[in-house]
Write a structure and sequence with these properties.
The protein has 321 residues and is an alpha+beta fold. Strand 1 and strand 2 form a beta hairpin. Helix 1 packs across helix 9 and helix 7 packs across helix 9.
């Protein structure tokens, strides 16, 4: 649905808008003489939200994706037209399953049982404390972290609690308790409970070190009958803001927007992670999406954002050769 300068629809910002921009850019580039531009492959993949195993990872495993550099359209900013940002990397992640076992009893006689949910809650609080652990981050990423924090602070309606969380978001892991379950009946002491955690780690820091730290905290807590299982672990990555590819992308954005783009580290992850891991090529992100609208009920993309992304995608291959 089009309303004024906005195009509404599920996935408009994350990331059908950028896909539409890439399609138009492909048409534009197909009409330019071959020798005047870099060779470009456009890949429209599925499955990114659930790990990319049937999308980009499969394409990488079969050797279909190759190249010297990668631009990801799955990139969000507050205002891609007037204040463009480039994703020069993204966080890694650590996904944990916390399990607690106890002993069943009638809820009227809890002293005969061993409540697994009580154990789970106590252990979950221990895991949350790992968010106070300062990450070991390379010095050469500090300027980009500073720019990333400034970007997040550009959302003016943050409350004080959110501001403090933003200030910690890169030098400390972010800990999200995302799923919890346990118990079979209201009058039965539960003998089993489990919880899932999504933990994000700034690129340059090692998620395995954090996993060992968390296991150490659980052991030191003295809470019996709980264990932590790693369900997923992936390092993040980051690129130099002064590389040839970044310089070409910056120049393309400047031509289109008449503004100098700034770098940021994406808080989430994209298909750039497996591409970087397998191919080792520079991966940057720029697109038409608006951050706060991703997965939102009023999701939309602006016509201006679409035009900016289309023009940048069309110009970049002419500059980066």
């Amino acid at each position: 649905m089009v309303v004024g300068d906005r195009i509404y629809g599920r996935g408009a910002s994350d990331m059908k808008g950028s896909c539409a921009a890439a399609l138009i850019a492909a048409k534009v580039l197909s009409e330019i003489k071959y020798e005047d531009k870099a060779t470009v492959d456009f890949w429209f993949t599925c499955d990114e939200e659930v790990g990319s195993s049937n999308g980009t990872k499969w394409l990488l495993e079969t050797g279909l994706i190759n190249g010297d550099a990668c631009l990801i359209g799955d990139s969000l900013s507050m205002d891609p037209v007037n204040e463009p940002y480039v994703d020069v990397g993204c966080k890694g992640y650590l996904r944990l399953k916390l399990r607690a076992v106890g002993r069943t009893a009638h809820a009227s006689m809890p002293f005969y049982g061993d409540n697994a949910i009580d154990k789970l809650i106590a252990a979950a609080e221990v895991i949350k404390k790992s968010g106070e652990c300062r990450l070991k981050i390379p010095l050469d990423i500090e300027e980009t972290i500073k720019s990333s924090i400034e970007y997040l602070f550009s959302k003016r309606d943050l409350n004080e609690k959110q501001k403090k969380a933003v200030e910690k978001a890169y030098h400390h892991p972010t800990i999200s308790l995302t799923m919890i379950s346990g118990g079979v009946k209201i009058n039965v002491v539960p003998d089993y409970a489990e919880a899932s955690f999504d933990i994000r780690v700034t690129p340059g820091a090692n998620p395995e070190d954090l996993a060992r730290h968390i296991n150490g905290l659980i052991s030191e807590s003295g809470i019996g009958g709980v264990n932590v299982e790693i369900m997923g672990l992936e390092n993040g990555y980051y690129e130099s803001w002064n590389s040839d590819f970044a310089t070409s992308l910056k120049r393309s954005i400047e031509i289109v927007t008449n503004s100098q783009p700034k770098p940021k580290i994406l808080l989430g992850a994209t298909d750039a992670v497996p591409i970087k891991k397998v191919l080792g090529v520079p991966c940057l992100g720029f697109g038409a999406g608006i951050e706060e609208l991703a997965h939102a009920p009023n999701e939309h993309v602006t016509v201006g954002g679409l035009l900016v992304a289309t023009k940048v995608y069309s110009i970049l291959p002419l500059i980066f050769r």
